[in-house]
Structures are given as structure tokens and as C-alpha cells.
Amino acid sequence: MGEWPVVSARRFESYVRWSTYAVVSTPISTLLGGLVSAPPLTTENVAVVSAVAVATFALVWCNIVVSRWSFNAREERGERLPIALVVTWLLVLAAVLAGTVVLPIPAMRVAAAAAIGSAAASIVPILDARRTLLLNVAILVLAVPLVAVLQIALLMVCMALVSAVLWICWSSVWMLSVLRELQGAHEDRAALTLAEERLRISRDLHDVFGRTLTAIAVKSELASELIRRGRDDRAAAELREVRRLADDAGTEVRRVVRGDLQTTWEGEVSGARALLGSAGITCTVTGEAVPAPCAEALAWVVREGITNVLRHSSATRVTLTTTIDAGEVLLTIANDGVSDSGPAQSATDGSARSDPNAGTGLRAMFDRIRAIGGRAETRRDGNWFLLEAAVPLPKERE
């Protein structure tokens, strides 16, 4: 599906180009039609007709070159039009017009209109609607003096032909522009979708494996310490747990790639208690039950908050507290792993620079919370570091 707009634009561009080339070649068919319907030519007329025919073919060649340049210039990949070509183009146009006026063949007057219309159509691809209208009006104004040598009906037919040629070419080029804009929008949307998917995978991998790798590190260190103390049975159990975590990581990778990664409040709280306990950190969970609509978002906060505690703090106690008030659920994760040195900082903008719990994962977590209309911040209270996240309750629960 991604290639369809590109192929369609290319095909339609080829159609517009070749139809324009056909339009700017109409003086040839008009000349031949006039000669077929003309009475037998005299010796003098044959020379004039030959000269007009040569000039007509030269005009058509110039029209095609100019129209090709116009298309390239519209796409900003054309060079400057050579002055010599412009001069030649105008001279052969004048020669065709002079010849068709000199020849005593009424049908050749239509050939003159075709010559003017084809020349004007050659530059239509680089004109907008206003400039095309001005060109059309200019041609009509310049044709007014021809009333002295042409019948009004014939002149009107010729000018209608010129106007039709101009606007047919312009409408085709306009449709090509619309299709190209549609193609560009499709490509932009595809690029945006790809970027969003990459961001999702990056964020989910960080959220999932930050916790998993931290758990593996903690349990591996615990197993090493147990081996050092001679408690081989307990160490073997911890190593089996490390193996299980590694196996689970493979499953989580597939879930992240498929986009069906989910987390639960109960699972994250239970995992946090077990992981903190393995690291010798006391974990206390208090507060009100978390409503189901808010559970997943706050579960991600628990995952990231506990991961940061294990990675960046020297905490011995952690508390998870939930409260429901003013139409929102507030989760507070506090740990006592902050040293006395260093000023307290808050990060309500997602910067997450508060020592000792800094990390890009907090920024991703802040983004998750803000995306659902919530708020989050980190701050210090003495030797305690607090991570607070509030998620709005659904309207029907307020």
C-alpha cells in the first residue's frame, strides 16, 4: 500500500506530460487539416506553405522543449531556459502567424490560434491560476485588433480554442500538484507512524528491561554473596531465578515487538516487594485500592520507580502509598536513600534530574502520565526521595 501513491503519481505525471506535449503539438495537425481542405495551391503559395510548415515543426519542437523545462522548473530541478531558445521560439511563432495570415486559406486562421494557444500552454506548468488567467486575458486583448481581418465568429472560435487549451493544461497540472501533495502527506504519515513505533519500542524496551536487568543484577550479586558464605542451596535457587528472568526476557521482547505488552498493578507491586526484599530493602504498601482504569499507568510508575531505587539509591526502606482525592489517584513512592549532601530538586517537567534517582526512564514515565492527562514530579523531603504521580479518575467515578 505504501508504494501505491508513488506509482500513481508517477503514472499521472507521465500522462500530464505527454498530454501537454500533445496539446503543444496541435499546430501540426491544424496545419495539415487546413491544407487538406484548401483549394489547389499556386506556385507562390507552395513556397509560403513550405516555409510555414518548417516554422510550424520548429515551433512544436520549441513548445515541447519549453513545456519540459516548465515541468522540471515546477519541481525545482530545471536549469535556466537558454536565451537563444527563447528567441528562436518567439521568432518561429511570429513566422507561423505571419504565414497563416498571408495564405489565402480561411482554415489557416485556426492554425494561427492553435499556434498561439500551444505556445502559451508550454509555460502553463509553472503558472498558478492567477497568472494563467492574466495570460489568457492578455492573449484575448491582443487578439482584439484581428477583428479588422477576421470574421468575429471565427475570431471568437479561435480565442475559445486558445482559452480551452490553456485551462485544460492548467487543470491537468493542478491535479498533478494535488496528487503530489497527497503523496507527500502519505509519506509524512508513514514516516511519523514509523517514528512513533520506534519510540514505543524504545520506551517499552527500556521500561521492561530496565527492571529485568536490574533484577538479574541484584539476584546475581545475592547469589555470589551466598556462594561466598557457603550457602550453595540458596545460591542455586537465586541462580535458577536469574535463569527464569532471562527466559522471561525473551518472551517480553516478543510482546514488545507485537505491541501487546501490558502490566498490572498487582503484578508490579508483588514484583517490587520481591525484588526489594532480595536486595535487603524493606517495602511497605499502604493506601486505597487503585481503580482498574488507573492501574496500568500507575503500574508503570511502580516499575520505573523501583528500578531507579535499586539502580541509583542506597535505600533501606521504600513505601508505596496510594490515595484517591479530588478526582484523581495519587501514588507516592518514597525511599530513604538520599544523602544529606546536595540541594533538593524537583522535576515537574519530565527532566528527572533529582539526585540520586536520575534517569531517562523517568522522562519516559512522565510522558506516559502526561499523555493521559496526569501529572508527576520528583522531590526531596529531608533524607527521603519522593516520586509522586497522579492519574485522573474516569468521569463517571468522580
Automatic annotation (TrEMBL):
Amino-acid biosynthesis is among the record's keywords: no
Domain of life: Bacteria
Comp. bias intervals (Polar residues): 342-351
Keyword match Transferase: yes
Keywords (A to Z) from UniProt: Kinase, Membrane, Transferase, Transmembrane, Transmembrane helix, Two-component regulatory system
Annotated transmembrane regions: 21-41, 47-71, 83-103, 109-127, 134-154, 160-179
Leader sequence segment: none
Pfam families, per database record: HisKA_3
Residue stretches making up the Signal transduction histidine kinase subgroup 3 dimerisation and phosphoacceptor domain: 197-258
Gene Ontology MF term list: kinase activity
Region annotated Disordered, chain positions: 337-359
PANTHER family per UniProt: NITRATE/NITRITE SENSOR PROTEIN NARX-RELATED, SENSOR HISTIDINE KINASE DESK
Protein name: Sensor histidine kinase
